[in-house]
Amino acid sequence: MSRAFVKETDGDEAFEPLADHPVSPHPNLVTPQGLALIDAELASLRERQASAQQAQDRAALAQIARDTRYWAARRASSQVVSPPQNPVAVSFGSTVTIARDDGRMQTWRIVGEDEADPPQGTLSYVSPVARALLNGKVGDVVRAGNSDAEIVAIA
Asked: Which of 1, 28, 43, 61 is at 20 to 30 A from 137, Cα to Cα?
């Protein structure tokens, strides 16, 4: 094989820029806690970038650059929405408890997309269950997933 067609790396690996994380088309609503999480993530990325630069870790730097672009864009587009005081209906920032047909009680807080973590009790305001709950009042029955559920508390 001709040496003209062989790529020599001399120790440096070539990295193509990583594809950006997809950004949601929905408004970037965040709770005050969600904004703090974004700021903390950006601070963490700055620390990781400094370490990766010192170590000359090009793969880590590429990943950090991609993540920084995403979180910087999310920070720039953030619309902070404070939770309602004494809510009568489910809205962004509310904590809502539902009673399922099978007797289970579930409680979720409706939050922004980046701060949602259903196993931890937070739902994105654009998720199907959250959309079903939004504007609901105590006593309303809504379709939550594959079954009906009654809203029993809003905080």
From this structure: 28
Domain borders along the chain are 25-80, 95-154
Q: Taking Cα atoms as reference points, which of 72, 71, 96 lies closest to residue 83?
A: 96
- Mean pLDDT over 66-83 rounds to 96
Radius of gyration of the chain (CA): 22
Spell out the CATH class of 95-154.
alpha beta
Q: What is the pLDDT of residues 36-70, one digit of tens each?
A: 999 999 999 999 999 999 999 999 999 999 999 99
E-only strand ranges, the chain = 29-30, 79-80, 95-100, 105-111, 122-124, 141-144, 147-154
Is residue 53 within a helix (H) or strand (E), and if so which, with residue range? helix 32-55
How far, in Å, are 21, 44, 64, 77, 99 from residue 40 at the CA level? 18, 6, 14, 16, 35
Strand locations in 14-125 (E): 29-30, 79-80, 95-100, 105-111, 122-124
pLDDT one-digit tens code per residue, 100-153: 989 999 999 999 999 999 999 999 999 999 999 999 999 999 998 888 999 999
